[in-house]
Amino acid sequence: MPKLSLPEQFSTELLHIIHEQQLSALFQPIAALNDGQAFGFEGLIRGPSAHFLHSPINLFQTAEQCGLLSELDIACRKVVIRAFAESGLPGKLFLNVCPSSLTLPSFRPGATLEFLKTVGLAPQRVVIELTETQAISDYDLLSKAIGHYREMGFKIALDDLGEGFSSLRLWSELKPDFVKIDKYFINGINNDAQKRQFVRSIQHIALNTSTRVIAEGIETPAELETIQRIGINLAQGYLISRPQPHPSVQLQLPRLTIERPITLNQRSTTAGSLLKDTPAVSANDSNETVWQRFHAQPELYAIPVLENDRPIGLLKRHDILEMFSRPFSRELFGTRSCATQMDRQPLIVEQATSLTELARQVTSSERRYLTDGFILTEQGRYLGMGTGQDLIRAMTELQISSARHANPLTGLPGNVPIQNAIASLLQDQINFVVVYADLDHFKPYNDIYGYARGDDVLQLLGQLLQHHFDPSLDFVGHIGGDDFILLLRSSDWHLRCEQLLSDFSIRTRDFFNAEDLAFGSYTAPNRQGEIERHPLLSLSLGAAHIVASQFESHHEVASIASSAKSMAKQQQGNALFVERRLTLRNEDSKYATEV
Question: Domain EAL: where (predicted)?
Answer without folding.
Answer: 7-257
